[in-house]
Amino acid sequence: MKYILPSAFAIIVLLNLFACNTTQQLTQKKEPSLKFLCQVNGDIEGKAVYMYEFDGLGFKFFQVDSTAENNVYQFDIPVSKTNHFYYVGTDTKNWRVIILGKEPDVKLLTNISNFKKSKIINSPINLAYEHTKQKIRQLNSKSISLNRAFVKAKNLPEKQKELIRQMAELDKEKKNYLDSTRMKDDFLGKIVAI
Question: What are the tens digits of pLDDT across the range 88-122?
Fold first, then answer.
């Protein structure tokens, strides 16, 4: 008799936990996601395509697809208010950076042996990112060139004055580019600021 009451109580508690857990599972909504397609040319027999996410400190495994249908690998990307950097490829030496999270129907056209040379379709943010990288390289190249010229002109005060003026102009150009990029897209503005 003394075991009946605790046993009945334990059964009621377990039934309540089960009912709450079942209700919670039924009411949980599936997170909305975007499809990212990776169309691959070349011999893909037995090859998987991996996706990693960069969290600011390192790379975290995100997804893998080893079952390409018609040479197309498919990934589900969670819809996000902000874009995220992902890296997609067959291994760490053969991957491509891509920005995903806000744009639907982004597609990557690539060759299985060279993801770095792939083409991203239907993604204005990735196109803008490529232009941003190109502009940053151009500005950095100008900066390096002016710094080298300044070092070479150490005994030529007039030349140094001219180079200092050009450096000031370049700094203004960099600042204007940063401001205009931030106005267009905050995500790209943060990249330029770095």
Answer: 999 989 999 999 999 999 999 999 999 999 999 99
| Contact assessment for residue 106 and residue 84, using Cβ atoms and an 8 Å cutoff | no
27 pLDDT band (50/70/90 cuts)? very low
Q: Residue 4: pLDDT band by 50, 70, 90 thresholds?
A: low
- CA atoms of 129 and 59, how far apart (whole Å): 20
The length of the chain is 194
109 plus 150 within the same structural domain: no
Which one of 122, 147, 177 terminates a domain?
Answer: 122
Query: pTM value?
Result: 0.77
Cβ count within 10 A of residue 95: 20
Same domain, residue pair 42 and 103 = yes
CA gap 23, 27 in Å, rounded: 6
